[in-house]
Amino acid sequence: MKLKLTNLTLIVFIAVKSFSQENSIAITGIVSSENKTIGDVHVINLNNRYGTISNINGEFEILVKENDVLFFSSIQYQNLKITISKDHLKNKFLNIILVLLVNDLDEVFLHGLTGSLDLDSKNTPEDTIPKANFVFKLSDLKKKLPGDEFGYLSNVNAETFTNPLYLRGGGQGSAYNKQLEKERALKKELKKKKNFPYQLKKELGLDFFTNDLKILEEKIYNFISYCEYRDILEKYYANNVLEVIEILKEESTKYNKIEK
């Protein structure tokens, strides 16, 4: 009988918890102070204990429902609590403004000084703090540091490890979503390929293509696509611009013959 009651209590708790989560919605917001956005601000829902961190643009996203209390905290700013209202849920956006934290230090009085910098500097007591027993040499700058086990991740965003929307299992301490990481890497690569012709034309200049290579202005992007089999995209992003220029010069002769 006790076992049945325990199971029933557990089922009711899970049902209530699930119903509560289903009623929650994701809202976004921006944290700022004195007309500047603030990154790395901790945002915690004190009701469901979900948390996230604002990105470098001050943006964040978190699950909430009506009457939930959001707690904002950052070292340099005063803590702030916001109660979620119906208007917040309707707009699905929060504009959070934090107040800069000013620390007032106690007044310090110095005794035994004459006011003359020359005399007071001569009467400075001997430093009793032990000196460091190590030195740096210029050769130390060339030393190679140990590898970073997380080096394969560029610009790691702490939000992906704390925001339940980015974690499997609704943010219940699950593993980092590798699928999301792959999707972001793919989007980044596609964006780089899409922007490549525009960046290349901007860096080398219109005159280079029209005067030096004799490529018609309206054919420039088509010509760049024609040259991509020579791996100019990879060479360009590897900072081998001079090599890219030589390839473009070589291929322009063939391209112009084809176009004629």
UniProtKB/TrEMBL annotation:
InterPro entries: CarboxyPept-like_regulatory (IPR008969). This is Carboxypeptidase-like protein.
